[in-house]
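Friendly challenge for the regulars: who can give me the structure tokens for this chain first? No prize, just bragging rights.
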Amino acid sequence: MPKIKTHKGTAKRIKITGSGKLSRERAFGNHILAKKSKSRKRNMKTDAFVKGKIAKNVKTALGGTK
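First reply, four minutes later:
Bragging rights claimed.
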């Protein structure tokens, strides 16, 4: 089997933590912020984690089994 290439678009958006979880940024935090509540904007600053079947697919896109 050949090596699996890293999907660079995914690699720029998702980081693997020390424990092996997949960390990503939240969406909708760039513009039109005046109508969004303070707590909603604050929540958008925190990282989210990719879970379940999607996490397995993302790990494959990042270069195989890790």
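Strands lie at 14-16, 22-24, 48-50. The radius of gyration is 15 Å. Your move, everyone else.
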